[in-house]
């Protein structure tokens, strides 16, 4: 994560899009990435002017929060902050808004709740 500090927007966009996939629940890379400070980096990306960086930051946080331990969920909430969550919910980019709603779902729901929601509305959520 230290290598990405101060990187150009182009490099951050590619790296953060990769992190979205590496932070999925079943990824063996998830724990080492978390331990290297990914939450701080990704929360910072949600504050970027560039829409692609905001999207990748919130998307990776959403994936990270899926079926995560409460400790990780609390870390995301504390680092992101409620003011930033509300800013993201008002983002002009629809994709950022949708991933923010997905993050909230993952932060506030358990696996049975998420499975039920995805069963009912999965097609709309995954678009």
TrEMBL record:
Protein localization: Cytoplasm; Nucleus
Alphabetical keyword list: Cytoplasm, Nucleus, Repeat
GO biological process, one term: proteasome-mediated ubiquitin-dependent protein catabolic process
InterPro entries: ARM-like, ARM-type_fold, ARMC8/Vid28
Cellular component aspect of the GO annotation: cytoplasm; GID complex; nucleus
Domain of life: Eukaryota
Main localization category: cytoplasm
Annotated protein name in UniProt: (California timema) hypothetical protein
Species whose genome carries this gene: Timema californicum
